[in-house]
Amino acid sequence: MNVDSQQAAFDDHHDDPGDLPVMRARFEHNGSPRYMLYTIKRHGFDRDHGFHLDVELVSDELEGGVETVEARLQDGEADLIDIDYISTARERAEGASIVAFHPYGRTVGGLVTPEETDIEGLTDLHDYRIGVVRRVDKNWILVRAACREFHGFDPEETATSVEAGSKVALTRMLQDGEVDAILQFWPIIPEITETGPFREVFPVADLVQRLSGTDRKLPVSTFLTSETFLDERTETVRRFANAYRDAVNLLVEDDDLWEELGQRLMTYDDPNVVTAIRDGWRDMVVRDWDHETVEGMEQLFDHLLKVAGPRTLGVDQIPEGTFRPEVTIR
After folding, report:
1. Which fold has domain 3-106+217-327?
2. Which of 318, 293, 294 has its CA nearest to residue 98?
3. Which CATH number among 3.20.20.80, 2.40.30.10, 3.40.190.10, 3.40.630.30 corresponds to the domain 109-212?
4. Enclosing H/E stretch for 241
5. How is the beta sheet containing 109-114 ordered, strand by strand?
6. Most CB contacts within 10 A, which of 107, 211, 250, 264?
7. Are residues 2 and 59 in contact, defined by beta-carbon separation less than 8 angstroms?
8. How far apart, in whole angstroms, are the C-alpha atoms of residue 111 and residue 180?
9. What are phi and psi of 67, to 5 degrees?
10. How many other CB atoms are there within 10 angstroms of residue 195's CB atom?
11. Which helix (H) or strand (E) covers residue 248, if one does?
């Protein structure tokens, strides 16, 4: 489903903000946060908490080397996005005035191949063409780190990574046979495996847990805003966090809501696809965090840095002030 069709679903629930403070949310049209954002608008959770959430969906193309949503935030055209915290650290280290104020979830992907393939796990990646959105994508970094830590090789050296530039192009590369496997993001995988001769070999979430050395579900992606917006609109940020919790609670409990999401926001409203995305979302999402959560995220980063190195991560430390958990901790 294209950007315009999905945006129309949101516009049905966009009303006049009146005197309410406005938070401009800019999110990818094929990213999983749109389910939560739609729920907030559909059920008026933003108004319930005293603010107006203005949602605009954008493509996942790159602008000047960064994803579109990142560019919007850095250019002052957005107040709310989500990206993984490795990218947040990288951009902040390069001078971007962005901060992570609340977790979203374990938003990684999986390795997808044609059904008829000899690839069964990490040790089989040698000599294959592996499609990635870009080489600094978290899925590729995690796969490289796991291969180096557990199997003593780096697939960047023994396989061929092929950059697609977007999630849509990545799927097309697999379907057209341009690559032997892809590291696709989790919400898109059911649309591939349920509708074509493809299978998921392994989820990257398993690698996150192995590398972190903990059973605690760690968020990989967080919600971001600018330092200026956080300083000037702290209460609006807190109100979003409360609306987010309300939406998560409903999405975890209400199966009927997912049927509506399938009809309005998904390319395929096949019940099997919708159910797979629903279950994956519920397993991925993180309602809240605390300082212990942040410590775990920092430990995972340190482990990735040790295994993959600063060149692979694009940053050698998480800059001070990247995480602001005290803003939204209950």
Report:
1. D-Maltodextrin-Binding Protein; domain 2 (3.40.190)
2. 318
3. 3.40.190.10
4. helix 234-253
5. 160-163, 129-132, 181-185, 109-114, 198-203
6. 107
7. no
8. 10
9. -65, 155
10. 13
11. helix 234-253
**Residue 185 is encoded by which pair of tokens?**
């993001």
Contact yes or no for 171/211 (Cβ under 8 A)? no
**Token pair belonging to 167:** 């999630």
Choose among 322, 327, 329: nearest CA to 88: 322
Return the half-sphere exposure (C-beta side, CA atoms, 13 A cut-off) of residue 236. 21
CA–CA separation, 199 and 1 (whole Å): 22
Fill in the DSSP letter of residue 40: H
Q: d(Cα 204, Cα 294) in Å, to the nearest integer? A: 20
> What is the tens place of the pLDDT at every residue in 100-139?
999 999 999 999 999 999 999 999 999 999 999 998 888 9
Q: Which helix (H) or strand (E) holds 23?
A: strand 22-28
List the domain boundaries for the chain.
Answer: 3-106+217-327, 109-212
Q: What is the pLDDT of residues 46-72, one digit of tens each?
A: 999 999 999 999 876 655 555 678 888
